[in-house]
Amino acid sequence: STQTRALKYSSLRSTGLRVGQVLLPGDQFFCEAEETLSLSATARRDTAVCGPGLRRSGDRVLVCVGGLLRHKAPNVFWVQSHSKRYVPAKGECVIGIVTAKSGDVFKVDVGASELASLSYLSFEGATKRNRPNVQVGDLVYAQFLVANKDMEPELVCIDGAGRANGLGVFGSGGLMVKVSLGLVRRLLAPGSELMADLSGLFPSEMVLGLNGRVWVKSSSVQQTLILSNLLQSCETLSPDQRRALFHRVKQGTL
Amino acid sequence: MKDTPLSNCERDFLLKAIEEKKRLDGRQTYDYRNIKITFGTDYGCCFVDLGKTRVMAQVSCELVAPKETRPNEGILFFNIELSPMASPAFEPGRQSELSVKLNRQLERCFRNSKCIDTESLCVVSGEKVWQIRVDVHTLNHDGNLMDAASIAAITALCHFRRPDVSIQGEEITVVSAQHSTVCLIYCTSNLDPCEREERVMDGLLMIAMNKHREICSIQSSGGIMLLKEQVLRCSKIASVKVSEITELISKALENDKKARKAGERCGFAESMPQERITALKMDETPVEMKNVTEKAEDIVKKYEAPPQSVPSPLVPAPGVGQVGQGQQNSWGLEEEDGESEEEEEMVVEDQPKNKLDQGECCK
């Protein structure tokens, strides 16, 4: 979640933060000031957009997650960290497991600290008489409608126009694995090499949830197992090692 | 905290994989995961890694008054702690069903096998005997805690040095563990289940055996019906595995003894030299790939490369490319030269032959 904060330029550059530097929780974050500040010009107020990992307290910006500082022009800063624990954010698509039906609402486990609720009516073509066919233990691909730290998270399986658009119940026959959040984001990045390499191996279907859950299905049990193991090992492989490994897999000499 | 529930799709997949004799991480049906044994600085402390499952055992001793019914024997006390560090399903404080079950199994396994000679623990008959206490702490739960706990307990007992007290002074002697007893767990015809496989299983057969091929205890829970042949087969496999594991334990003990004699620094911190904050280490898992080559080639042969939807462009003049010939202008306007028309967008449809608007595409 990004929050826009107005920051005054500080002429003190005591820590001299660089992009790509390791930051630890509790460090203070300074905007990079310009080289020279002319005294005659009026004091400008510049906005810096603070992304995940940076939080404002009083008139300082503190780092609250350990990781590397990242920057996107012109003024977006965030801290990139390796994490597996998901925190719900509005608009993100996740894979959930239905744990209970209570009244008009399904309780769905998304790997966060609370169970999210998914209403019966938030499926395509669902009415009070025409209930969707969802059982306890099913996998659903849904989007967060409400996700903040003060309220219970809510999921929906339709988009703004009422169409399913890929969301909904799925998952007969595949395997679901848990990976780190960073790996999923790498896979979903446009033009991702990782994704291209993986999809070039076997014909397969994949559903990627931003909560770190990935569902894989291929034409046989063995291929599905191979794909899921490769996916989990991609976290710790450098691009060269990964290409070498995939090459061996394609030749069947693994 | 609640553990993540097992979805129907995972359960179906795991059962199907078991039917086809495939394990999640590429092992064979009767394969164990990698066992790693490390020792701490004190005698009697050891860590056991069974794949990702990790437990620690610590042995300590104390002089107490013996039981009235057995004045000549020492006391052995086993305790398994399921700490919340191991799994989100373990809650602190409360004695859960699983912890009671594990404790009972461990006690039964070691007491019945008489692997420790309790009479040698007696100091003064009827007044003072040694009480040996084994505490096993679970650090990470990835399935098969029972095996890891039993390996850790017996290794810690073998590693432990009990102080020998006599009237003159103190000497150190080794607690004699006569034979190592190791438990093995089977579930739905798979050996050493990992956590997800454990959740899917209906029943469990536990065989505790020592290296002299004597069965110390057998336990079956979950109410599955077992055939005679299955039990016999399991016990045969158990004897093979037990001898492997016993060898591993004795090798680890020897290595540690050598290291201590040579004066090297030993202990838990020394056994992990590679740890850095940014290092993510994962062991290689051998995933079986044998049948896949033929299938992959078949698939590749069946599907040809997708046909090019656009024929290759012509270059009528440098810097200008033309794709397609263009057709009769149907707008009723005056016909202009093809090259002077400037249409930025080129509409390309799936049918490869026709319907390409005349246009220029700039390189």
UniProtKB/TrEMBL annotation, chain A:
Residue runs in coiled coils: none
InterPro entries recorded: Exosome_RNA_bind1/RRP40/RRP4, KH_dom_type_1, KH_dom_type_1_sf, NA-bd_OB-fold, RRP40_KH-I, RRP40_N, Rrp40_S1
GO cellular component: cytoplasmic exosome (RNase complex); nuclear exosome (RNase complex); nucleolus
Keywords: Cytoplasm, Exosome, Nucleus, RNA-binding, rRNA processing
Record-annotated K Homology domain positions: 174-222
Subcellular localization, as worded in the UniProt entry: Cytoplasm; Nucleus, Nucleolus
Entry's transmembrane regions: none
Molecular function terms, GO-annotated: RNA binding
GO biological process: CUT catabolic process; exonucleolytic trimming to generate mature 3'-end of 5.8S rRNA from tricistronic rRNA transcript (SSU-rRNA, 5.8S rRNA, LSU-rRNA); nuclear polyadenylation-dependent rRNA catabolic process; poly(A)-dependent snoRNA 3'-end processing; regulation of gene expression; TRAMP-dependent tRNA surveillance pathway; U4 snRNA 3'-end processing
Positions of the Exosome complex component RRP40 N-terminal domain: 21-75
Assigned protein family: Belongs to the RRP40 family.
Protein name: Exosome complex component RRP40
UniProtKB/TrEMBL annotation, chain B:
A GO cellular-component term linked to this record: cytoplasmic exosome (RNase complex)
Domain Exoribonuclease phosphorolytic: 32-163, 181-239
Biased composition (Acidic residues): 333-348
Compartments where found: Cytoplasm; Nucleus, Nucleolus
Basic and acidic residues bias: start-end ranges: 350-363
GO MF: mRNA 3'-UTR AU-rich region binding
Keyword vocabulary terms for this entry: Cytoplasm, Exosome, Nucleus, RNA-binding, rRNA processing
GO biological process entries: exonucleolytic trimming to generate mature 3'-end of 5.8S rRNA from tricistronic rRNA transcript (SSU-rRNA, 5.8S rRNA, LSU-rRNA); nuclear mRNA surveillance; nuclear polyadenylation-dependent rRNA catabolic process; rRNA catabolic process; TRAMP-dependent tRNA surveillance pathway; U1 snRNA 3'-end processing; U4 snRNA 3'-end processing; U5 snRNA 3'-end processing
Family designation: Belongs to the RNase PH family.
The name this protein goes by in its record: Exosome complex component RRP45
Annotated source species: Periophthalmus magnuspinnatus
